[in-house]
Amino acid sequence: MVADAVIYHPAVSHYLKFVATTVGRDKLLRTLQYFARFYAWYLLRTNKPQGSIAPWEAMKKQFGLVRKVLRAGKNVEHFKAAAVAADNKTMDPVLRYTAVGRQLGYAGYLTLDLATLMDATGIRKSASAKKFQQEAYRFWAMGIMCSIVAQTYTLYQLRQREARVDRKEGEGVVESKRIVMERAASRLQLTSDLCDLTVPVSALNWVGFDDGVVGLAGTLSSLIGVYIQWKKTA
């Protein structure tokens, strides 16, 4: 009876829905990958022996490789999303242009990242792999920056909407609650974007973040991604 209660618990069904999605598995792997990056840095800084650091370095490297394989071909999804956003003439112009820029940035990143897959897996080494990866980071940074602009603009719009709401009316109360929910979602996405931005800017040497900062920021953004995907699969 206890086993049945556990197996048929709604949380187990929810978990199965979550891990059945590629995004769900990717976010879990990403959380472990970036935590391993932070923890390996921490162990190194505290002068721990190489034997203690090696498993975390291996986790960082191997989970990163698994994620690279899992996202192969995902660039097509972002090219299509960019085209859909460009064709949406009813969308606010700022949000439309930033959506196109974000999707093209991610598409460019994933396309160039895919070009390094054979080299990363050791199937076929390429002298151009490092250059492709650097250019991929540039596209990723561009996509994230577009997303940051979009979320900042969205928060500004929400403040404007909130100022016009009449909370004395029933409809105004409903609108106020809707604004609170939209603001929370936008702030969460903005936080995730700011954390994610540390990865490409440090890889490109635009900002001198060490593995401790990048690892913690990546872990936080990954946990936010887990939370968002968990809610979507509820």
Describe this entry's structure for a reader:
The protein is mainly α and 234 residues long. The protein has ten helices and no strands. The mean pLDDT is 94.
Order of helices and strands: HHHHHHHHHH
Share in β-strands: under 5%
According to DSSP, the number of beta strands is 0
Describe the main β-sheet briefly: none
Mean pLDDT: 94
Rg calculated over all Cα atoms: 21 Å
**N- to C-terminal distance:** 25 Å
Level of helix content?
over 70%
The helix-and-strand class reads mainly alpha
Number of helices: 10
Low-confidence stretches: none
Shape assignment: globular
State the gist of this model:
This protein is mostly helical and 234 residues long. 82% of the residues lie in helices and 0% in strands.
